[in-house]
Structures
1.
Amino acid sequence: MAKLTREDVLKLARLARISLTEEEVDTFAGELSAILGYVEQLSNVDVSGLKPTNQVTGLTNVMRKDEVRNYGYEPRDLLKNVPSTQDNQLKVKRMIG
Amino acid sequence: MSAWKPIADIAADVQNGNVSAISLVEQSLAAIDQHNEFNAIIATTEERARTRAADIDARVAAGKNAGRLAGVPFIAKDNFLVFGAETTAASNILKGFNAPYQSTAIERLEAEGAICVAKANLDAFAHGSSTENSDYFTTLNPHDKTRVPGGSSGGSAASVVLELAPFALGSDTGGSIRLPASFTGCVGYKPTYGLVSRSGVVAMGSSLDCVGPLAQTVTDTACILDVIAGRDELDSTTIERDKAGYELPSTSYDLRTTKIGVIKEYMGEGLDPGVRTQIDSAISKLKAAGAQIVEVSLPSLPLGLAVYYVLCPAEVSSNLSRYDGQRYGHFTQDATDITDSYTRTRQVGFGGEAKRRIMIGTYVLSSGYYDAYYKKAQTVRTKVIDEFAAAFKQVDFLLGPTAPMTAFRIGENASDPLQMYLTDIMTVAANLSGVPAISIPDGESDGLPVGLQLFADQKCDRKLLEFAQAVEGVIV
């Protein structure tokens, strides 16, 4: 059974870009192990001859014309929720060293 | 006696000038105010609602058609993008977010004259079965204030039962419409996957998410589905609507030609005796009405929850990666670099359940575990789908409880996430297989509502609603 250590939890949190408090690391180690322990029952299920399902109603690639449409939005309205902007663009911290 | 007439009658009253849209909006807002203690509502959209009501009343006065839902107030779960109030999905990370566009479901309802008056509480990002995971507050069950209303659409369900509005919108990824409908005593409908557009609804598990109505009766539920169902180019997973539409005639469905399968796996161990009594009583009434009842086994259903709690967190971890604080939502002012900005935004912005699901999802999708967890779950999902398909070759509809229990006490499952997940054990299979399912009130056990769940094959939504209307007539 999957038993997650504190290090495992910290690694997952790093991959998922979440900071955790010391207390959260301990709590999640126990809780995530219990959840993974529960879903591990799937490992014993015989699925020979079956394919994985991605889409339940059988739709495959749904295409539309690649054309510009005017939905009537003003850039300044679309940018209203952005915490930091400059010249109608998003302003973020440096991403590449 | 309900505070609200059937939805079609309300709209007719408005169109005929017997009732004004503004008086209906005021009635709804007054009820919201009066029942504030239940915490069903996060925010009202009253200013915009009053403006829209005035427009509708002006149309009626000018002799124009004001729409099939003219002046009908409704409440949207707070994960629908709506003008006139913030859309937060009851999360800290989206506090202060004002939608720049509206969800397709809201647009379609507004086009027919319906008026959104408020946003309902939910478990943050729709992760939960009780509204206890809301980053705001827990909604109280209208039947017992010490108990949960179910979730995640708990605020929507409580709104309908408290008669704050004639109907509400919810979303159902693993039972989030049906479970609260069951716990509070209203009708909750999860359509066939893709029948209602999710454009403008905060995404959770995209291969599972469905949008649907909650209302007092099957007839009202069908009336709303008829307005919101069908293809939408903004959601490429949407499917064609039924040519016959979904509005139901008053003539009753003939139960004497109907073959109903009772799901064996949902009637076994772990079912609360009080719930069992109510389900058995409904089955007896259906038999007396001439329906043919058989027991049907779908042996993989008990695995459904394990499949769900691999696939759903996997999709959650992907969908919630967009909340990085750079474009909208909570922002960390004093971050040292971009990674620090992401991680601290998500630390503060996500509650415990969102973090749990993101990390489980990250785990099952990570290299080395992908085949054992994610791909395996997708393959067991195929097994569940095949069993539903086989069952619908034998019977017209399937039947079972919506949940193994009635509404539990606030705090009862709060310290054990896995125990909370087990609440969804009878609802997740419909999401895994894409079939439509409905929860309708089936009396009470110790003063708490019990929900009866009915299923039909994919794309048989109209047939399911006709049947559910007949069942509702027989078991009430």
2.
Amino acid sequence: MGLKQSLHNLKEKYKGTKMAPAFGAFHTFLYTPNDTTHSGGHIRGADDLKRTMNIVIIALIPLLIFGMFNAGFQQSIAIHHNFSSGMSFFSSEFWTLDNFFIGFWKIIPLVIISYGVGLGVEFIFATINDHEVEEGYLVTGMLVPLIVPIDTPLWMLAVAVVFGVVIGKEVFGGTGMNILNPALTIRAFLFFAYPTWMSGDKVWVTGAVQRTQDIAEGAKLDAITGETILGSLAQGKEFMYSTWDMFYGFIPGSVGETSTLLIILGGLFLIFTKIGSWRIMLSATLGAIAMGLIFNGVVDAGWIGEGSKFYTLMTTPFWHHLLLGGFAFGVVYMATDPVTGSQTNKGKWIYGFLIGFISILIRVFNPGYPEGVMLAILLMNVFAPTIDHYVVQGNVKRRLKRLKAKTA
Amino acid sequence: MSTDIRIKKGLDIKLIGEADKTTTQLSLGSVFAIKPESFHKITPKLLAKEKSHVEAGQALFYSKADERILFPSPVSGEVVEINRGAKRKILEIIIKADKDQQFQDFGKKDVANLSDDEVKAHLLASGCWPFIKQRPYDVIAKPDDKPKAIFISGYASAPLAPDFEYVLKGKEAELQAAVMALTKLTSGKVHVSIDVNASLSPFSNLNEIELHKVSGPHPAGNISTQIAKIDPINKGEVVWTVSPQDLVIIGELLLTGKFNAERTIALTGAQFNTPSYITALPGAQIKDLVTNNLDDDNTRIISGNVLSGTKVDTEDYLGYYDTQITAIPEGNDYQLFGWLLPIFNKIATSRALIFSWMSANKKYNLNTNTNGEHRAFVVTGAYEEVFPLDIYPMHLLKACMYKDLDEMEALGAYEVAPEDFALTEFVCTSKQPHQQIIREGLDLMIEEIG
């Protein structure tokens, strides 16, 4: 008796029991089910939610791997102070196995905790509520390790994941029902609960926090630091990275957000497969450019002096904003979440534009935390149903107008 | 005068098993059945008694809501059995056909000289009324309404749909008679839409119609699509629709006085050895129609097309309105890593490692597998790509699900039929039953608003 038949027999055995959701999750991971159509059309399209989610994961994997190399690379340049700006993307200094394994051993635990805890919560809720384990967390679980600083303690991540999945999603009814992007809810929880671990110049380089503690205990070591470019800009400090470094991603930052090049490639893949919304990606970019141009214009007009604490960020050329921080990552992978984003095509333009616009606004004016994309997306998640409401009302009004024209 | 309708949104699902243009004249089968269920929202009141004899065209039952609407027997023969279900609901009226068919004579009519009321009375008395359906709600028309227009789609764009140009060949006289009768029932026009490429369509030269040429992918041939482009339905308005083969039946009745429900049926789909056309009466037993032609091993037989037809088996009967039988493989098997591996032999509108976008003209052998499990709505924007109406499909579906009548009305529920949601159902990654949701929503509106 083959595996297929044995699993089928088990499925029949577990049908209607508390085991069914958990077993179903494993079973459908191995085999797409033998369900046939029983109402309406007799044939169905080849893609399901698992496949859709999987495409997003495929688009994230290059970023995960790049993040592993970059973790080692950032640690190495922080210790040896040997960063030379202007490396090519395929530089042999960057793509070394040493770099990779430093990152690998730091990042894999984040991935395991993210998936283990998150899917655990999903399994529990699926069993209690007696529904299938849904795929939403497959993407969230991959996003989470990519949007946190590399040294985030694992217990913190676990707490945040539980909070994010339960409060961000399950209380609303699970996948498809949530209002806020679960991955960003997790990050926002970390950000507000443990702010010292989410910003500053110690958290972006693996080992930096540990070393600071060792020094405090009397070890004879040099402190290592690594400030993100946005952090430097917010404090009006110089930084040593060229535009190409930013574009390729040889800079400090959250694990997966640094390489704009790979994010663009991932975004193009999502657009090509029709999984990600090009409308949101494009309009968010336009929104960011608009806000950036406004700030640049304000500076050019002389309305703001060099003494202002916003001066450095406002003078940053508008297109640099697209390369810095988590903007590109947020726009491509988080803003495009179909559940929490706008659902109408027209709404997507407005929603995306405002995300880009507000991201840069927060980025420049928020002194405490030099990044705005997370808050901008969460804010627009809340407004997305309102945007859709007005878009749909436009359709309703058109219908009423047609009726009036008839009866008049 | 003709106007052109072009739609861009939609999807042509190309399947193997298109019917060859040859028609086999089948001998009459022995057992027929009429199912009141084929007539949506009709509560039947029996006229025929068990063991009694009926002629072709003689009424078997009438509608409880309007006793003028009669439902005729397609054959002459003996009513052998009336099968009832729970609460004595009538499921099937089974008729054993006579060797020599006798037709009830309704008398030849000269349509030009009939008044509006005479036409109506004639169609009601002869049992032709159920061929006339109304929008909103996609149910049998109410005889007392005066529709603002009547729509006929002479273009079937559904997968493997019968070619009207072929099946209606030589029926111009019947079509003309029927159309002339229909023009008397509406305050507006009779709109007929044909495929822009159908050079020999029997509709092209008819009088008293407004001809429209349609192009674009499915659902270009769906009547809702055409209504929306020609003269959209507003709240309070009613339009009627008739399908072309039913027009022929109406036409023949007017010309000869006989109710002859014989249609040309397309046998289509991968499980037929030789997909082709046959002649058959509604209510014919499926096994009489498909003998020696069907590969019946693990096969889904559908009375109708793959998108909106009804599941039947060989002991079952051809649906009253259906002009097509489709047979495709059942998909009741597991697929190892079906969600992960690239797919070359199935269709999707996304390109999620599914390569149907690469070969636009390839024909597929799709089976009935759902290719995934039922989920909440997640993906957005996919429905709009295959949905040409000016309606937000997901919002309307959700309004139907939470039964908000005001919202359903505002979002355009009067303009749709379940079949319009067949393509959104096909592309739905959450595998939601769209057509069922819309049907239940429309039924609720009938009950609450009427």
3.
Amino acid sequence: MSDSTPQSTRRLGRSGLSRAAETVVRTTIAVSGWTTILILAAIAVFLFMSGMRAMQEVGLWSMLTGDSWFPTSKNAQFGFLPSIAGSAWVTLVALLLCVPLGVASAVFISEFMGKRGKEIAKSIIEFMAAIPSVVLGLIGLAILAPWVRTTFGTDTGLTALAAGLMVGFMCLPTIISISEDAMHAVPNELRQGSAALGNTRWQTAYKVVVPAASSGIFAAVMLGLGRAIGETMVVLMLAGNAGIIPSHPFLSVRTLPGTIANELGEVVRGGLHYSSLFVMGLALFVTTFLINLAADMILERQRRRWRR
Amino acid sequence: MSGSARIRRARASEAMAKTVLGACAVISLGVALFFVGYIFFRGAGSISWEFLTEPPRKFMIEGGIYPVIIGTVYLTLGTALFALPIGVMSGIYLSEYAPRNAMTRTIRLAIANMAGVPSIVYGLFGVALFVGVFGWGRSIIAGAATLACLTLPVIITATEEALRQIPNDLRQASLALGATKLRTVARVVLPAATPGIVTGSILGLSRAAGETAPILFTAVAFFAPIATSPFSQTMALPYHLFIMATQATKQAPHVVWGTALVLVAGVSILNVFVAGWRSGQRRKMRW
């Protein structure tokens, strides 16, 4: 019986060519799966290599702790502290604005809005994230900077405050959408249980949902922080780029990304100044990398907790 | 008595919380809409057929921004050429092939992390690698490669998510008919997931089109003619806007706001188009 089946006359399996083609394609796919790791590693390597000269001649520690930045004067000084302090002020203002506003908005969208409203809110948030930062910088120049100057009587509107407020707005989509996701992931049984015990929606929100989603909300705040530190165009246009170490946010400040963007165009390729800007970039990269890594790990753990 | 007082208090705080939280949400979302409205209000007067189709004259303060628009189109197309093949394949790998192990988790962490790398850091990377080591100089191709790095995580995530929505029944049916895994992916899974991949990628690319910091030192010039090769420098909307708003010697507000409007309108149209198309597709295909 077995020798009379049609199989015996048919070619078994596929041709070698088709097998080879499949192997090639499958390998290509697997390799491209690794590109992201490759690119991240390449970023670190190239920033490090390009910053090598400055790190050898000036020293990493004296750059990170140096309090003056005069890269073009005869006795060139490459201290990052003015930029670090400026970034810190801008980030602080941004977080003070976007954390309360963002988390409150997320609670409202997640716990008080209907299905249709949620969809609309989400597409507005997606759209917010798509507004180019240079456009926000322009709006800041037109509205925010004059407002800061007249309201607080500063010499110029281009201050850490103006930049911080706009950067805070830029972080809103990140904070809102990720904390909303975190609250959305909280199982409905918990809400129903809370309602059955006689809690109102608000009581359910702050006694049950927010605590259950707290690690996700925390991660959202950290991702917002990472975004705030790294934002470039808004701080370049609004922070004023002054050279001093600022003691309050009503001053013009320089920031890490702003300094890089401001000066990289004018430096000699491979020179000490050029190299020191790469060290600054490396510092920025390492900081945001660690912040994002921590936030992503928190999110990953939370996802696994609710999946079960 | 005390019970009803507690209920009254709970109701009052409920109403209060709802008002405050609602106000926060309205402010957050309203500011975004206000900004866009403001751009339209300030920029609408500059938009004319001449503004969109003529090259600039008299040191940019007269004429149009045609080469600037074309420059951004070229940069964005270049970004798509780099990022789409790698991003889609990477998404396919993660959704269809990747084993569930620590290595895959590391790849996922890397993708999430890449999305948070500051744009100026990508700019530095592009200067060091594409402009320097590869010797591409300041050019469209160097700028596009830099923007592609930044867009990659968006495209990968969109692809993976779109593929995950395809029910396993489809895959199993195809495999049961004797198709190989690759054939199943190419002929069954990928076509079904195309709408999701396309919309996600367009969103990512529209964001790349608005980025300034990554192209600042890798691609753009204050003035450049329309590019004739991928190795020419180019003008681009975000950079033009930046330079005209902050560093131009002669102020030309109508050019600045007109450029801003063209940029925002381009991004908005893409976003609205994508949102509409996606909800249409979602209604059509229900698993």
4.
Amino acid sequence: MTSQELELDGLRRRYGSVTALDGLTFRVPAGQVFGFLGPNGAGKTTTMRAVFGVAALDAGEIRWRGRPVDEAARRTFGYMPEERGLYPTMDLFDQVEYFARLHGMDGPAAAKAAWHWIDRLGLSGRGRTRIDALSHGNQQRAQLAVALVHNPELLVLDEPFSGLDPGGIDDMSAILAERAAAGVTVLFSSHQLDLVEDICEAVAIIHHGRLVVSGTVADLRRGDRPRLAVRVAGDRAAAWSAGLGSSAGTVQSVRADGTAEISITSTPDSQAVLDLARTAGSVEHFAYEDLSLSEVFRQATGASVGQAEAEHAAARGAAVTTGARR
Amino acid sequence: MNSLGVGSVRSRGSLQATWLIARREIAVRARTRVFIITTVILMIAVALAVALPAILSGKSKPEHIGIVGGDTTTMSGIVAEAGRLSGTQTIAVPEPSLATAEAALRNGDLSAVLVANTKIVVKQVPLAGVTGATATLAQLAGLSKLIQTVPGAAAAVAHGVTLPVTGLETPAKSLSSRLTGLFTVIVVWILISVYGSQIALGIGEEKSSRVVEVLLSSVRPVQLLVGKVLGIGLLALAQAAAMVVVFVIAGFAAGSDLVHGATLGVVIAGGVFIVLGYAFYCTAFAAAGSLVSRQSDVNSTIMPVQLPLIIAYALSYTVIYANGANTFYHVLGFLPPTAPIAMPVLYAAGDVPVWQVVVAALLCAAGTVWMARIAVRIYANSILKTGPRISFRQAIRESRAA
């Protein structure tokens, strides 16, 4: 299974003065849902477009099963771009069948697969409806059908969860999990790190076109320093934690309800923390807690996702102004 | 479910994809109400343009035939019989001498003069030969002569029984040949501008709806472009062929001079330049369409592409209706962007020999290759760029750098 994988190796791309990709390297294993995460402007879309040869690279190589990606390999990939697009006046079935055939399926197989995915994605009865007459949610499903219809071996989805309601998010993640279970390599991007942490098994998090961290979600969220969340009844400011020696643990933050987040260096330290809390009062809450993915991002980069996006938007505004002046 | 289907076809390569793209263009466009209605309207327009003048002239204008010499009653009888047989109303006009008859012929009072037992004189013999009442008259008068001179009948039969028809003026390219040229030019103009803007609009649609990114994830830009112009081109060719068929059928049915006078050469030259003109312009229209992000901007980017066509088309009327083309128009006939319109006109008007038509066609074919190479580069470079409209200058510069 692990031989079926996508490798991105040293990808570089500059647009004028803006560096979109700066030596990005990571691997995507087969058979699991892999999240490609980072704030807006981190270079996710450029990377995904490069997989399909739609964006050019200044340097680096993308390999599929050990070989550079070529046209024949791309025909076995399925793609849902960030900017969704279908022929607005074509009907749903014709559209899905057309893309199946462009990916090399013969007529009868393409028609069969098109009907299969139209039904599977809850679009039964809409096969003869024009795309522009479908609701926004159904257009999203149609786009997914186009990406899935030729039974791709690699599925690349750019922000598949954006604009979906909670029900839509559940449907989408169920389909991604189902494809991964069928042995398909599934790579999807998102800038909403915490939204997708339960959906994917492994992630690569990028910032400024470089890899920040990658690994399984479980490992990343556990972090290298375990974290305790402790609350003592009646102590809204977590005043009890002032008595912690620096050897036992460090208070990271105190939540509004008085829960102190304490990072410790080793497991036995937790007992010292518990003892201290119990002397202060009755302990209402005591638990190991995982980091959220956005905290993983903040720990690794020193900036929150929101700050990173604001910084990107400002840089982009500056680039546009320079362009206009020129 | 489909792994077999994918695997077996994957190796068939790029022609398969190009044809799929062409087929989609045909299927999507031929089904639209606009296409069906315009096709029907064009065919009706062609039929009326060909048939109406013939029907109107056949009904309202009797032919005046001058008679010189011989017995007036016999001669008038021959003229009347020729009219009856050819389905034309004929009036015999006795003329005192050949000189007065020829004068009447020149100023248009007479359409033919029958010189007893000798010949038929017309103002100008049409290139395709004499038709209608005059042809019948020549046969009847010949027969009459044969009967009168029975001893020499054998010799007369050996030489044919038809009296010779001679013209007062040397034959030039007839008006009907020029009109066939005009018809060709209108077809070239309509097909290139209508289908060219359809190419540009179609590409603008793919770009503005962003479907192009999904398409280009599985096919190359050149396949997408070639498939599109091939599909639309086949549709255009089918429509042109339908118009020619209607032209010929309506022409014969109405007995129009347009068909009889149309030399095969003009029709062939027109056909060659319809194909060359479409080939030259289709990629240019595609490149123009790839420059915009919104479909509504397409009309302004295709204007510069259409400009040479508009100039050649506007000037073609002066060549058709005036005698001969000036040097400027001759030059247009050899430039690839204007040749598809100018050359058929020059040829139909009898201003250029065949070898010059061939040279212009070869130049145009070479220009088509050159244009396609530039246009494909512009297209590939611009099709995925979003944002404001890209200027031609910028697109050419960037496609050189790429």
